[in-house]
Write a structure and sequence with these properties.
Layout (H helix, E strand, L loop, with lengths): L9 H11 L2 H22 L4 H4 L7 H17 L4 H44 L6 H12 L1 H10 L5 H10 L4 H11 L1 H12 L7 H30 L1
Helix pairs in contact: 2-5, 4-5, 5-8, 5-9, 5-10, 6-7, 7-9, 10-11
Length: 234
Amino acid sequence: MLDPVPRPASGLAVRCTRALLSPWSRLSLLVAMLAAAAVTVVLYEPQRLLSAGWPPQLSGAAAVVLFGVAYGACTAAFVPRPLLNLAAGTLFGSQAGFVSALAGTVLGAGISFALGRLLGQDALRPLLRGRWLMAADTQLSRHGFRSMLALRLFPGVPFAAANYCAAVSRMGYVPFLLATALGSIPNTAAYVVAGSRAGSPTSPAFVVAMGFIVVTGLAAAWIAWCKRHRLRER
């Protein structure tokens, strides 16, 4: 009489692995990571850098590099970039502050894009419904570089939201980072200069920087209104 063929012991392990690596499990992990990062930001209050300053034991190039790394991690955790840009200018001045802030911008965008692409895209793409969501996905997927460049030049959409939306689309990684680096230069420079000259609000540099911030903000609002009007016509 033939003995029954035993079932492979690895069957349960394979099913558990598939469940853990499923799109919705990965999306749940992403949500948990972002929630933990947001709670950490609330507890540690990075905005205190504007009042308390940088730790005195950190100075020079090491401080600039460390701030850039912290900047990237904070933007991935939804800390507003204007706050970090002002802090960069206040702590390090216009030149070093701009280099650190721009490097942190690209780093934070890359972190957010990688997390969204690896953990969220497969689960969220099937949920893209509605005229606005489909139009945004089509624009980013087909014209990723110029669309992201426009979003960075006229920052009407929150930085973190743009990063994760681009990750869910079919936009490439290199065009995303390149558009982020180029498009973030003017706005980053304006906020850093404003932060470095905050002690003299009547100086020409501060007035020009604030004027640029206001003009780009109004331009972003006007572009958003035009886009909305065109979608309604369609």
